[in-house]
UniProtKB/TrEMBL annotation:
Aldehyde oxidase/xanthine dehydrogenase a/b hammerhead domain segment(s): 39-145
Pfam families, A to Z: Ald_Xan_dh_C (PF01315), MoCoBD_1 (PF02738), MoCoBD_2 (PF20256)
InterPro entries xrefs: Ald_Oxase/Xan_DH_a/b, Ald_Oxase/Xan_DH_a/b_sf, Ald_Oxase/xanthine_DH-like, AldOxase/xan_DH_MoCoBD1, AldOxase/xan_DH_MoCoBD2, AldOxase/xan_DH_Mopterin-bd_sf
SUPFAM superfamilies registered for this protein in UniProt: CO dehydrogenase molybdoprotein N-domain-like (SSF54665), Molybdenum cofactor-binding domain (SSF56003)
Region (Disordered): 1-32
Amino acid composition bias (Low complexity), ranges on this chain: 1-18
Natural source organism: Streptomyces lanatus
Superkingdom to which the source organism belongs: Bacteria
Full protein name: Molybdopterin cofactor-binding domain-containing protein
Extent of the signal sequence: none
Length: 769
């Protein structure tokens, strides 16, 4: 038999029969939208159309800091095809917006505070006309000196009526006079990462007969977006509806409200549908980025390497407006010591306004920046003590029952030592052969300029942690409805599918609970009860929990008549593969027969246990739960050119429970690859507040050629008892951990300190002596 025939036979034998297709919790269920996305029929916002459509364009400031002396829209309004021009004078409601704090103008009126801030918006009958009209708006500026150094923001003139300081957290834990035998210090800088959504940011606004408006957006938090839009338009929330279109993935706040809100204003003013598709440059200028951060650390340890005290100063550059900077700072300060036992900690954290591009929510915000710093400190301690870096980390690893520097006891599973041991003991990859055929293995890729003799291999480690859900008293609640009729179940929940797999999980939950194979998840809009934003594992935990509770309520409705008829409790009945059976085998029927044509439905909520804000000393039970990860990085560095190739990343992670193996693996690999970009290439550069090269040629994203070999060495399934299904969020903590591990490996290869991310080539060059 030929190899081809053998392969075909094996594939045929492996293909499951239709009634054996995996379903339910623990199965690798295929996403419902997979076919539509691969065939190009998935309904993204950029594809939307409406009768009588107008096109919008936004005029943005060319200056990072300026006083607006006048705005003249006369020429723009008189252009043929222009239907409306709006500025700050046309905002009927609240002139301010913002995700965490409403301090950002819809349109700048008196002062411009960052490059790309919206000034005016235009609606016209053609997109080119709209862009030309926006450019025809004449704005007279008086340029001002921008404040771009966050350290200078403390002494600079206020950039905002609320001042330059957004938040200060002074964390005090333990004895301030404690000192160790060994002390290491470091200064670290983390660059500005852009979420760089691959799909275009786009939206469509359609006026309603009642004087309201419908917004079709790739929103990740539709109810919050609706409420802000309603406040801006001076309307009741009931007269504004947000319909979520297909979201092409999101690792941050997906859409910039700086163009969401002008869309609705233009639709209300013209009485026509208005659409805007942002260019890549507009995306870079408008939406928020990861906070650039300056970190100063001092670690104290005893002669055995046990940590005695950590002192740190953390400064987040929030850009022009507050957005979610207060929340990011809480995460940075709370996790400033990492997943290590630290009896004494004294952390000062600040978030300040500057005239730099705006910062906000990006996956792992706050935790990623401090992870890079505290792991560099652990490498310094290991080197000074002459101890293996992995061993030093093991001596200090956090475990369940230990206390964080915030005073919060870790009650969730925290198998940090187990994770680190797993990656440490995993076999190292083979060394590349020093032959011409394998030159593509050199740093720099195929036909790289490097020489094999200049390549050094390094091995480094990273331990990271993130919090799940909101923090500091955030009210996390989600509502879901499950309906069953004619053997088909429908889930209604306003949890947005951003690529995290919620719609697949919802189907699995209902399949598992009710034994129904055909499950549909309804499209999301704000007519449904709120479910919160799609970040920090919220929908896996809170929305998934709401779906589970609703499905169990329907299950009880289904089983109660049967239990009553046979004189037993519903707990003695089980549903498996669409069949209802009793413990003693007396009852056996199908779910369809038991339904008997009825329609059953139930609505339920899920709300995790409450948290509390950090107090004046940075103390408090601020986090619902935590997730941990260990990564061992292997890199090859050309010490003459400074080029770095990530050979392998071996990862171990605590996941609570694996709900969908294929989906979980994909999420972890995606998170790790995003971390590679943070470590080596991604840095949105600016000069005196002006973004340089706001495009994908000037901003380098990792591609498939840059993705390393990712080995998922171990997944620890120790269920978190307070989480539905016991599962933890999985995608953020690899993003947090992998940059630190890669930097550690580059330090191992070069002996250089590597105190900045992304790693610049000159930081990896070893000068010949």
């Amino acid at each position: 038999m030929s190899n081809e025939a053998a392969t075909a036979t094996t594939a045929a034998e492996a293909a499951p029969a239709p009634d054996q297709i995996p379903h339910g919790i623990g199965a690798s269920l295929q996403p419902a939208d997979a076919r539509a996305k691969t065939e190009g029929t998935f309904p993204y916002a950029a594809d939307l159309w409406a009768e009588g459509l107008l096109w919008a364009a936004v005029l943005r400031s060319p200056h990072p800091h300026a006083r607006i002396k006048s705005i003249d829209t006369t020429h723009a309004r008189e252009m043929p095809g222009v239907r409306a021009v709006v500025t700050h004078e046309d905002v009927p409601g609240s002139p301010l917006l913002g995700r965490g704090k409403a301090d950002r103008p819809v349109f700048a009126s008196e002062v411009v505070r960052h490059h790309g801030e919206p000034i005016a918006a235009v609606a016209a009958d053609h997109p080119d006309t709209a862009r030309l009209a926006a450019a025809a708006v004449i704005v007279e500026y008086e340029t001002l000196d921008p404040v771009t150094d966050p350290e200078q923001a403390f002494e600079a003139e206020p950039l905002h009526p609320d001042g330059n300081l957004i938040r200060h957290i002074p964390l005090r834990h333990g004895d301030p006079d404690a000192a160790g035998d060994i002390v290491v210090e470091g200064l670290y800088r983390i660059g500005r990462q852009d979420p760089a959504p691959i799909g275009a940011e786009a939206g469509l606004a359609v006026p309603r007969p009642d004087g309201g408006v419908e917004l079709y957006l790739a929103s990740t938090d539709p109810h919050t977006d609706r409420d802000r839009a309603a406040a801006c338009y001076g309307l009741e929330p009931e007269r504004v509806k947000v319909v979520v279109t297909g979201v092409p993935g999101a690792t941050a706040d997906r859409e910039d409200q700086g163009f969401q809100l002008p869309l609705g204003l233009l639709a209300l003013k013209t009485g026509c549908p208005v659409k805007l598709t942002a260019t890549r440059e507009e995306s870079f200028l408008g939406h928020t980025h990861r906070h650039p951060t300056l970190l100063r650390y001092r670690h104290h340890a005893d002669a055995e390497g046990k940590l005695v005290k950590v002192e740190a100063q953390i400064l987040l550059d929030a850009g022009a407006y507050a957005d979610t900077s207060a929340e990011a700072l809480a995460a940075a300060v709370g996790f400033a010591c990492g997943p290590y036992v630290v009896p004494n900690a004294f952390i000062e954290g600040w978030a300040v306004r500057t005239n730099n591009p705006p910062s906000g929510h990006v996956r792992g915000e706050g935790a990623m920046q401090v992870c890079a710093a505290y792991e560099a400190q652990m490498d310094k301690l290991a080197k000074k003590l002459g101890v293996d870096p992995a061993e030093l980390r093991l001596r200090n690893a956090l475990a369940t029952g230990d206390v964080l520097p915030t005073g919060q006891t870790v009650t969730c599973p925290a198998p940090v030592a187990e994770l680190l041991q797993a990656v440490r003991d995993y076999p190292l990859p083979a060394l590349p052969k020093d032959t011409p055929e394998d030159e593509w293995l050199l740093p720099g890729g195929p036909e790289g300029a490097g020489e094999p003799g200049a390549v050094r291999r390094g091995v480094g480690y990273g331990l990271g942690m993130v919090h799940m859900l909101g923090a500091e008293g955030a009210d996390e609640v989600s509502t879901a409805t499950v309906k069953v009729h004619d053997g088909v179940a429908t889930v209604l929940c306003a949890a947005v599918e951003t690529g995290q797999g919620f719609t697949t999980l919802a189907r699995q939950i209902v399949q598992d609970t009710l034994g129904i194979d055909e499950v549909h998840v309804a499209p999301v809009d704000t007519d449904q009860p709120p479910a919160g934003a799609g970040c920090r594992g919220r929908h896996t935990w809170v929305s998934g929990g709401a779906v589970e509770r609703a499905a169990k309520m329907v299950r009880t409705q289904l089983l109660q008549p049967l239990a009553h008829k046979f004189g037993m409790s519903t707990e003695l009945l089980q549903i498996t593969d669409g069949k209802i059976t009793s413990y003693d085998g007396v009852l056996s029927t199908t779910v369809t027969e038991a339904m008997d044509g009825k329609e059953l439905w139930a609505t339920a909520q899920c709300r995790p246990h409450p948290t509390e804000p950090l107090d004046d000393a940075g103390q408090g039970d601020a986090f619902v739960g935590m997730s941990f990860c260990a990564i061992r990085a292997v890199v090859d560095v050309d010490i003459e050119l400074g080029s770095v190739r990530v050979v392998e990343l071996a990862l171990a992670q605590d996941v609570g429970r694996v709900l969908n193996p294929a989906q979980l693996q994909a999420r972890i690999e995606a998170g790790v690859t995003q971390g590679v970009g943070i470590a080596l290439t991604e840095n949105l550069r600016s000069a005196r507040g002006l973004i340089r090269h706001p495009d994908l040629t000037g901003y380098s994203l990792p591609t498939a050629l840059d993705a390393p070999d990712i080995q998922i060495v171990k997944l620890v399934e120790e269920r978190d008892v307070v989480a539905p299904f016991g599962a933890k969020a999985v995608s953020a903590v690899p993003v947090v951990t992998s940059p630190a591990a890669i930097a550690s490996a580059v330090r191992s290869a070069t002996g250089r300190p590597v105190n900045r991310l992304p790693i610049r080539p000159q930081a990896a060059v070893v000068n010949a002596q």
